[in-house]
Structures are given as structure tokens and as C-alpha cells.
Amino acid sequence: MKIPPVGHVTLSKAVAGRLSASLLEGTIKAGDQLPSERELIQQLEVSRATLREALKAMEENNLIEARAGVGWFACKLDAETIAAARELAGSYRSSGMKPVAPAGDPPDGPRRLPASPDKPIHIPNLKTDRLGTFEFISWWEKDKVRDAKVLVVGAGALGNEVMKNLSLMGVGHLFVIDFDTVEAANLSRSVLFRDGDSKRGKAEVVAARAKQLNPQLHVQYLHGNVTTQLGLGIIRRMDAVIGCMDNREARLAVNRFCYWMNKPWVDGAIQELLGLMRVFVPGRGACFECTLTESARRDLSMRYSCPLLARANILLGKVPTTPTIASIIGGMQAQEALKLIHNMPVEAGKVVHFNGLTNDMHTSAYVPREDCESHWVYGEVTELPARADQTTLAEMLRIARQDLGPEAVIELDQELILSLTCPQCNTREEVLRPLESVTFEAGHCPTCGTLRETEMTHEITGAESFLHRTLGSIGVPPLHILRARNASEFRFYELTGDLPEALHFRHFEGSAAAAAVPLRDRISIGEEIEPAEKPKSRIVLHEENLR
After folding, report:
1. Model-level pTM?
2. How far apart are CA 274 and CA 277, in angstroms?
3. How many other C-beta atoms lie within 10 A of the C-beta of residue 457?
4. Does 224 share its domain with 354?
5. Which residues does residue 151 pair with via DSSP β-bridges, in sequence order?
6. Has residue 460 been placed in a domain?
7. Residue of 112, 162, 109 lying closest to 139 (CA atoms)
8. Using CA atoms, how far apart are residues 477 and 389, in angstroms rounded to an integer?
9. Is the separation of the CB atoms in 295 and 362 below 8 Å?
10. Residue 392 has what DSSP assignment?
11. Domain end point (choices 57, 89, 121)
12. Where are the beta strands (DSSP E) in 402-452?
């Protein structure tokens, strides 16, 4: 008697069948983006290798298609693909696998916050533990929050709210950057500023007050421009980045930096009683640059015949805001950062609009652009014991050519202005600074006032006359990651020698730590200093000001 063999369905085929069934049922519709690989792995409870094998099988049957840098999308079904989907769907019927919902939709009814299955039962002492009530939140992981590193870009109205919220929630390490100073008009909408803060750096004041709100916080600030003065090595070491900026130029820079370092970032924008919040995650949906209109792209282009004027037009004006909308959007941004820290689901590539005039709120999805220039993640980073203020361009080029050959060049993140030439006086001034650091006013001839012509480059080829200059002298920030290339590949080099000073989270830590920080970077908390003796870079904060 002959007994036929028992049929065997591989797990990857069962996964492909489950997803195919979702297509046939209409749970996933033509054009829908599938959930991310991480979400599918969690829902289907399979390995990444199994999932990818299943997705490949579906692609071969023209059921889904891959879009580079974005994800998988469902194809339109026809007679041939329906038959293929039905054949695959028969593979999972007895597998007991979970159904899969399209990206952004809850898989089984209303979305529920995940609980940590390994979280031990702990009854906090609410009289002594300032963060004790958070222990009652089922998904809260104290250690993750305490160890988290978050970069806040911008210390205006939104930055104030975000820094306040993150410090109160116990996020352990905060780095804030802003190039602006406090003025009287800021006091009406910025919760951490005081009357005596006029002309002080916003980042410095916000960092100090956040430290007062939560003494357990480790904080660092940088009074500078994020587009030119923040090293990529800092972003590389962050768990999340929060953008509280008021111009497209800075947003585009942060978007590219985060994408290059494969880091998620949360953007917020406010005007009067209107606001929006959005989360961008590399590889998941649209990024900020994808959302720009063609008109906005032209405005942001730095390759005009008069780039200094183009940049001056970009930075003109400030929008009016209210403290109420800043609280709403800043609260949403801090909340999204908390979700990222806990690896909870976020609506990447989507925007939440809030209209305070009508109290309406709605979410919409952006369309990813396949040709978006921001969609590039750096490869493996080589850490060098080099410093921006000591390493010369010649030394950096020599390192690159040892790896990539004699044709290697160094690519700069920003256009480097080599010189300014006056067409009237025929005078030439060597500049050697990034475009973003040269003002429109500085572009005029000091003799006749004519707007001078700019000579720029974004590559170091080895033919330059200034190869003896240090990286820092031409605007490369400490702890930056430089990229070098030949005709076929890129290499990435970090100035890791800058790490101890560029990323320390030691500001306002006490006498021992403060001694390691330059005087210009310190703030004395609660110390009274006579005006005649008070250094210009110091600021005095009193406890009564925080009540």
C-alpha cells in the first residue's frame, strides 16, 4: 500500500499567503504601503529573513512592488495576479497566523498601548521619587528614559515647551542648540525665559532652567547654527531629534543630517493659533524634503547667481505665535519623542494639523518622492582620533586616498565660499567660510558698496592652495563626519578626537564638572554677583524665578 507524503508549507510561504489573503480581502488595497518590516515581524511573529523571503515571493508574482528608500506597496490586481494571490493564500489557511492591517491602521481594532511583559512590579515612594507616578504606566521603562539622549534644535517658544516637558518626564540627557538671544518679545510665549535674560543665548538659558526643573537631568547646550556648527557625530549618538525651528533652511539641514545618520526626528511648526507636528523616520514614508513644493525648492536652492541674496530672502521675517499653540504642539512633540524612546509605533511620514480657531485636528499622509536627495543613509563610519581644530585638509585627504585611491575627493556638506570679488573695484577677498556663515551685508564691497561675485566649491580635490588650513578653519564643526568618494564608492570619517569636549552633558553639574567646561559655557545657578564683576558670559538664575 502506497502512502502519499504529507504536504509541507514553509513558514515564508505561509507568510506570503497571509499577506496575499489581505490583498484579496481588501484589508490591503492597491497602492497602500505595507507596514514596515519591524511592524510585520511583530504582528506575524516571524524572523526578518522569513519575512523578506515572503515579500520576495509576492514581488515575483507581481502582488507588491518595492520603492527604493520608501518600502513595499500593493499592486493593482488583475486576473493573473488574483490567481497567484489565491494560490499563495491557500498556504496559510491552517497556519493560524494573524491578519495584517495596512500601514497606519490598527491591526485588531483600536490601537492599544503596549505593556512591557518583563516590567517588575514596583511600588514607588511618591514622597521621595520625583518620577514615581510614571511607574504606574504599564509601558513605561524608567531605565530607557533615564539613559535616553535627545537633541532639541531651537530654543524659542516650541523649544521652551519641549525642554520643559522632556526634563519633567525624566529624559536623562538633553542637548539643545540655538543661535539666537533672548529679547523682550520672547517673554510672552516662552515659559523658561525671565526679564533678566535679555541678550543671553536662548540655548544657555533653556538648558539651565531645565536643569533646575529636574536636577537629575544631564544637559548640554550650544550657542550656534545647526546648519554649520553641529557635528554629525552628535546626531549619530542621539535616540531622537526634535526640531523647533522657524525656517525651511534649518529644517532641510536637520532632515538631511538625521537621514544620513538614520535617526528619527520630530518636527513642529506654529503660527498664531495654528500648528502642525510630524515625525520623519528614514526609510518609512516621506521625509521633510519630500513635502516641499517646487516653489519652496527653488527658494532653498543655494546655487543662484546671487546666493547671498537668495539666502537673505529665506531668513527674512518671523511669524507671530501664542503660548497656547506652543504648549499644544510642543507637548505633542515631546510625546512622540517618548514613544520613539520606548520603540512604540509612530505615524512616520504623516502630519497632524491643529486648528485652534475651530479646535479641529486631522492627520494626512505625505507622498514620498523617489528622487528625493535626502534619502541617503551613510554607510559604516570610521572613527578617527582626529580633531577639527588640528587636522588639516591635506591630512584628511591623505587618509581618504589611502582607502579610495589617488582620485578621491572630500565632499563638504555646505558650499564653501572661496572668495568675494567686486566687479567695480576688481578687488578680491579670500573668505574660506561656509555659505551659511556669510551674511548678505558682508557680501558687499566695503569700498564701493557693490554686491560682490562669489566663488564657491563643495569639494576638496587636492589642487587647492589652502590645504594647509585646518578643517575647523573652513567651518567643519567638532565631531563631524566627513565623506570622501572616488568614482565608485564613498567612505565616511568621524573626527572622534573631538568627542570628550563636543558631547559631554556636563553643563551645570557642579564644581568638578564645571571646572572642565570653559568659563564662557557656564551658568551660575543661585549665585549673586555684583554687576561690575559679573562676566558677560555668565547668567544668574534664582529659585524664586521658577515659581
Report:
1. 0.71
2. 11
3. 12
4. yes
5. 175, 241
6. yes
7. 112
8. 9
9. no
10. B
11. 89
12. 409-421, 428-434
Question: Could you give the CA distance from residue 230 to residue 221 in angstroms, rounded to a whole number?
Answer: 11
| Number of C-beta neighbours around residue 145 at 10 A | 19
Strands 540-541, 71-74: pairing kind: unpaired
Q: Which amino acid is at 437?
A: S
Q: What is the rounded CA–CA span in Å between residue 268 and residue 277?
A: 5
Residue 213 scores a pLDDT above 60: yes
Q: What is the pLDDT of residue 117?
A: 54
At residue 64, the 3 state secondary structure works out as strand
From residue 305, alpha-carbon distances to 62, 104, 273, 301, 455 in Å are: 47, 44, 38, 11, 10
Range of the domain at 222: 140-288+319-365
Starting at the edge strand found earlier in the chain, the sheet holding 218-223 runs: 218-223, 173-178, 149-153, 240-243, 265-271, 274-280, 350-355, 360-365
- pLDDT higher than threshold 70 for residue 119: no
Each residue's pLDDT tens digit, 46-63: 777 788 888 888 898 899
Packing angle, helices 157-168 and 323-341, rounded to 10 = 50
Residue 23: inside a domain, yes or no? yes
Return the residue matching grid coordinates 535627545.
150
Question: Residue 66: is its pLDDT beyond 50?
Answer: yes
